[in-house]
UniProtKB/TrEMBL annotation, chain B:
This is Branched-chain amino acid ABC transporter permease. It is found in: Cell membrane. The lineage of its organism: Bacteria, Pseudomonadati, Pseudomonadota, Alphaproteobacteria, Hyphomicrobiales. It comes from Aquibium pacificus. It is a multi-pass membrane protein. InterPro entries: ABC_transp_permease (IPR001851), LivM-like (IPR043428). The chain crosses the membrane at residues 25-54, 98-118, 125-143, 163-186, 220-243, 255-278, 310-328.
Length: 257, 347
């Protein structure tokens, strides 16, 4: 049996006069892949930013594993077990690949200021253990062995996407939110990315909520699809049902016309 | 998403980590040089070595705030002042030993640094720099006007300390030891979660938040640590010069440390050391050269001395044009480690 790990209900967001999300409700079942699709400007990223705590909702609630998220500041999400990636990759160019990935575990590390300055016993041990964990759990999974100690800037786009995914995974999140993981990738890398996402769901019990425009990938991998259009949920359900839904076809044709 | 935040380009921290062996050897060499200065050097050399050590501590601190955490501050010397006055007052009124005075100086500057770091939570860049002028001017005002405690313009005079009966040399070893520990601690910081969080906040604060970094407390801590380093440097300076007065802690002195950070290399501990060395020694070096040239005619000296300032300023500008990453950029090139600089700027 699966239950819903994330429940968004009645969320409204406005920017100036624009209503970016209106009365958005959706449920994300645990250990499944839920995709959010919709035309450009539909409000998909805005929804992520509300869940992340970046944007204030005018009304509505977001509940994760029974706790209310909107009353908590953005930096508590990681400790709650939620991690995410960004539509335009948000790596730190001034750090190495390993340092970027280690930052993903920040909320789980305990080294205090003084221990860090001394870098004896506990602080050094924590770093060593983190490196071992990183090598075992994400570096290998995402094929980053060769880039581990290089600077992230200048690495190919696809590699940067995998680094960002590694950073989101190292904390062992319960919910992984991916904003357009396939965008800009060549077909072969899309397939690899889809397989890697599937793997963390199946083997590590992670719940995935992802946004993308790539229908082939989405329809092939998702357990549930939610469609946003002009800030409203117009359909939700199994991929095949959503694809056949007249309102969805209308929204996409309307957007193309 | 929120507007992609501006990241400081080309900070030095992105290059490959140094080969640990080279790093260890460098530290050992540094320690050997520091230990041997009183052996081969004159009294003047020991004096300069003290000053350099103190400036290294202050520059490392400012680099943590400005270079690593990206919080532009031009009020750094005010925190040296806090450390200097706090330790001098302890010494004069309670007679506490130097070690205690250093700690008190650091703690006092840390606390006051936190207060003046508050604007960093709201504003960035040049605006923040202007806000840090508040620290500069209001603390200067306190140093100057709170006469009953600070001695006003005349300041506080301190007795000579004699470390283990070794006089100036003994004191130099204390200063050098503190500088070494402070520098090592800063470098260690950036091997852990704390240092990484500073850089993350500098480069993309929204991504930092997603990773569980509390941007507010991280910025405050980064500001406070920079001030604490300044406090230690100020406490040592007080013991070294045996006088504390307001004019030691002016805007000019803050700009000196900022120049040391930029010339040495933002976001680099090695850069902080090189920057402090350059800024402390270069004016002396130029004075020597001009003195040599001036032996011919006595009034040439007065003619050339303004030139010293101009040459010094031009050198700084030239450095920054040819190597925006500062002196540490030259070192990286010499070691063949500049491979990703061009790539980063294209991105
Ligand atoms: N910070 C902001 N300030 C003002 N308007 C915003 C802001 N963020 C989003 N919007 C607006 O909200 C609407 C939804 O934007 P959003 O980025 O959520 O779309 P999206 O579905 O992710 O689109 P895309 O597929 O192009 O990424 C757009 O009209 C956008 O201009
Ligand atoms: Mg988007």
């Amino acid at each position: 049996m699966t239950s819903d790990i994330l429940v968004v209900s009645g969320v409204d967001v406005t920017f100036g006069g624009i209503r970016a999300l209106s009365d958005v409700s959706l449920s994300v079942p645990e250990r499944k892949i839920t995709a959010v699709i919709g035309p450009n400007g539909a409000g998909k990223t805005t929804l992520f930013n509300v869940i992340s705590g970046f944007y204030k909702a005018n009304s509505g609630s977001v509940t994760f594993a029974g706790t209310d998220l909107l009353s908590q500041p953005a930096h508590t999400r990681s400790a709650n077990g939620i991690s995410r990636t960004f539509q335009n990759i948000a790596l730190f160019p001034g750090m190495t690949v390993a340092e970027n990935i280690k930052l993903g575990a920040h909320a789980q590390l305990r080294t205090s200021l003084f221990a860090a300055g001394l870098y004896l016993g506990p602080a050094a041990k924590e770093e060593r253990e983190l490196e071992e964990r990183m090598d075992k759990t994400v570096i290998e999974l995402l094929g980053l062995q060769d880039n581990r100690d290089s600077s992230v800037s200048g690495l190919p786009y696809g590699t940067q996407k995998r680094i960002e995914l590694a950073r989101a995974l190292i904390s062992g999140p319960r919910l992984l939110m991916l904003d357009e993981p396939f965008a800009g990738l060549p077909t072969t890398e899309k397939a690899t990315m889809a397989a890697q996402i599937r793997k963390v769901v199946d083997e590590r019990g992670v719940t995935v909520l992802l946004i993308d425009h790539d229908m082939e990938s989405i329809m092939g991998m998702s357990d549930q699809v939610v469609v946003l259009n002009f800030g409203e949920v117009i359909a939700a359900g199994a991929p095949a049902d959503v694809q056949a839904n007249p309102a969805v076809i209308e929204a996409y044709l309307g957007a193309e016309a | 998403m929120t507007a992609p935040s501006q990241s400081l380009p080309a900070a030095a921290s992105g290059t490959k980590p140094l080969d640990p062996r080279i790093e260890t050897i460098s530290w050992i060499l540094l320690v050997l040089v520091m230990i041997s200065v009183p052996v081969w050097g004159s009294i003047y050399a020991v004096y300069m070595a003290c000053l350099i050590s103190i400036n290294v501590i202050a520059t490392v601190g400012l680099n943590i705030t400005v270079g690593y955490a990206g919080l532009l501050s031009i009020g750094h010397s005010a925190f040296l002042g806090v450390g200097a006055y706090a330790s001098a007052l302890m010494w004069l009124h309670l007679g506490t030993p130097l070690a205690v005075n250093l700690v008190i100086g650091a703690v006092a500057a840390f606390a006051i640094g936190l207060v003046f770091g508050i604007p960093a939570l709201r504003i960035k860049g040049v605006y923040l720099a202007i806000a840090t002028l508040a620290a500069q001017y209001s603390l200067y005002f306190v140093f100057q006007q709170w006469t009953s405690v600070t001695g006003g313009d005349r300041g506080l005079s301190l007795p000579k300390i004699d470390v283990f009966g070794f006089g100036d040399t003994g004191f130099y070893y204390v200063v050098a030891f503190v500088a070494l520990i402070a520098t090592l601690a800063a470098r260690n910081l950036f091997r852990t979660r704390i240092g990484r969080s500073f850089i993350a906040v500098r480069e993309k604060d929204y991504a930092a938040q997603v990773l569980g970094i509390n941007v507010v407390s991280t910025k405050l801590i980064a500001f406070g640590i920079g001030a604490a380093y300044a406090g230690i440097a100020g406490a040592l300076l007080a013991a070294f010069l045996r006088i504390v007065n307001p004019d030691q802690f002016t805007l000019v002195s803050s700009v000196f440390f900022l120049a040391a950070v930029v010339v040495g290399g933002r976001g680099s501990i090695l850069g902080s050391i090189l920057g402090a060395l350059f800024m402390t020694l270069m004016p002396e070096f130029l004075r020597e050269i001009i003195a040599l040239v001036s032996i011919e005619g006595a009034d040439l000296a007065s003619l050339l001395s303004p030139l010293r300032e101009i040459i010094f300023g031009s050198l700084i500008v030239l450095f920054l044009i040819f190597e925006p990453r500062g002196l540490v950029g030259f070192v990286d090139r010499a070691l063949g480690r500049s491979e990703n600089v061009e790539a980063r700027q294209e991105h």
